[in-house]
Design a protein that fits this description.
Blueprint: H1 3-31, H2 34-44, H3 50-75, H4 84-91, H5 99-116, H6 123-141, H7 145-164, H8 167-177, H9 186-207, H10 225-259, H11 264-279, H12 288-297, H13 301-320, H14 328-353, H15 363-380, H16 383-394, H17 400-416, H18 422-433, E1 447-449, E2 452-454
Antiparallel strand pairs: 1-2
């Protein structure tokens, strides 16, 4: 296939992925109105008490989660969780993208899981579906292995662009995250760019041209940068703990499911999520809009600490259910809460540490925005993507330098603590469960830095 034809295929993959990703996005947004609809129904039924209403909400969410898990386990077990590690495995030739079953299961299962209120992100399904569209095109056209793997990367980038309307970060994500697997050349790199940009254009045409998480951050003095160094250090520690806790929760849920039933934990988690949707909404859902609303709600320190704690727990529990869903969005929401909590603690402590010490005006939203990139860097270990992603998501560049500082130190601290990229760890776990040995890159392609393999 000539270059022009290959580029046209990449554009078509991006366009189709943009449409599918947007349909999932809009479908989830529509389904998440069900708690309000339940309120209206209950208001019309005078014989239904508040406790009964809460139990109804819990039962509805539990049913949706269990159904999502059943669809996934029955028809496409590889569609559970995030799709990133599956795509990386396919680009290494260790996993197969069975697009005929992954596409419908990822869409329907993701719609149920995200619509139930679970703390999972929509980017996992869209990335996997984008790669599935690419696999379908590759099989139809009979593309060779190298071109197929390049198109898989293009489809994954298009999926991320559809989820967050962030085409530049999507391109960088493929290059930085799949540095070991991506068959880099002008042809494949151009295909990734074309697919990502096309998906972003389609998404904007269908949903409107606006930053996905618009935030306005005032300019900060350079004297405030040490606060972001400290934030990066904190997030580096949290990121390593996040990754280890995520894998631990998945292993415990799998062991419990093998001993009893794979549907008990999803039912319990779904029931709890349904209750929290009514009594404590900020503890539920992927968290894209929560990250924005937290910056304007001015929650007290104790409530922000509760938000951090419960978002962390619910992220672990939700992902361990095995539904189709990603961790990008939950990471961003959790990071926002951590950044705000860090700012509140720092603001309370500064008067005791420095004469007339206080955070400058506008520091709290800047810390929240920088924290999103910082925690992403510490968990995914892609600091450049973290910086660009936050800039595209929020549409604000005043926090650009503080975000770079935060991402840099978060990445360095996570590296020093032996933290590894979460998708690399998840791929190794997937291969281990499938009875395969994890991939080991050649020594010529890596250098060891605190346990992190870098090209």
């Amino acid at each position: 296939m000539g270059d022009t034809a290959y580029y046209i295929v990449a554009i078509l993959v991006g366009a189709v992925t943009g449409v599918i990703g947007t349909l999932l996005h809009l479908g989830v947004d529509t389904l998440l109105h069900w708690p309000k609809a339940l309120h209206r129904v209950i208001d019309d039924l005078v014989d239904v008490s508040v406790p009964q209403a809460i139990l109804i909400a819990g039962g509805a969410a539990a049913l949706a989660v269990v159904l999502s898990v059943w669809i996934t386990r029955t028809f496409a077990p590889e569609a559970g969780g995030s799709g990133v590690q599956e795509i990386e495995g396919a680009m290494e030739g260790r996993r197969e993208v069975r697009w005929r079953r992954v596409l419908p299961v990822k869409f329907c299962g993701g719609l149920l899981a995200l619509g139930s209120g679970l703390v999972v992100g929509r980017e996992g399904p869209t990335i996997h579906m984008g790669a599935s569209v690419a696999q379908a095109a590759s099989e139809t056209l009979g593309l060779p292995v190298r071109e197929t793997r390049g198109l898989l990367a293009a489809g994954a980038a298009a999926g991320l662009a559809a989820a967050f309307s962030a085409p530049l970060a999507s391109i960088l994500f493929v290059i930085e995250e799949t540095r070991r697997q991506f068959p880099y050349c002008l042809r494949t790199y151009t295909a990734v760019m074309l697919a990502s940009v096309t998906s972003g254009i389609v998404t904007e045409e269908l949903t409107g041209r606006r930053p996905f998480m618009f935030v306005s951050v005032p300019e900060l003095p350079l004297a405030a940068l040490p606060a972001f160094v400290g934030l990066g250090i904190v997030l580096g520690i949290v990121g390593v703990g996040f990754n280890r806790s995520l894998v631990w929760s998945m292993d415990r849920a799998l062991a419990f499911g093998r001993r009893t039933s794979f549907y008990i934990i999803p039912a319990v988690v779904g029931f709890v999520v349904g209750i929290l949707l009514i009594v404590l909404p900020f503890a539920t859902m992927g968290g894209e809009q929560l990250a924005v609303s937290l910056m304007s709600e001015n929650l007290p320190l104790a409530m922000m600490a509760l938000a951090v704690f419960i978002r962390f727990i619910m992220t672990m529990a939700s992902y361990a259910t095995g539904v189709p869903g990603g961790i990008f969005a939950p990471i961003l929401a959790l990071a926002t809460a951590i950044g705000l909590l860090y700012g509140l603690v720092l603001d309370a402590a500064l008067p005791y540490l420095l004469p007339a010490g206080a955070l400058p005006s506008g520091a709290l939203p800047a810390l929240a925005v920088a924290a999103m990139g910082g925690l992403f860097s510490a968990t995914v270990r892609a600091p450049l993507v973290g910086v660009v992603l936050i800039a595209e998501l929020t549409g604000d560049y005043n926090a650009f330098v503080p975000a770079i500082v935060t991402c840099l130190f978060a990445n360095l601290v996570a590296d020093r603590l032996g933290g590894r990229p979460i998708y690399e760890v998840l791929l190794e776990r997937t291969l281990r469960l499938a009875g395969e040995a994890p991939p080991v890159p050649p020594a010529s392609e890596r250098r060891q830095i605190g346990g992190w393999d870098q090209r």
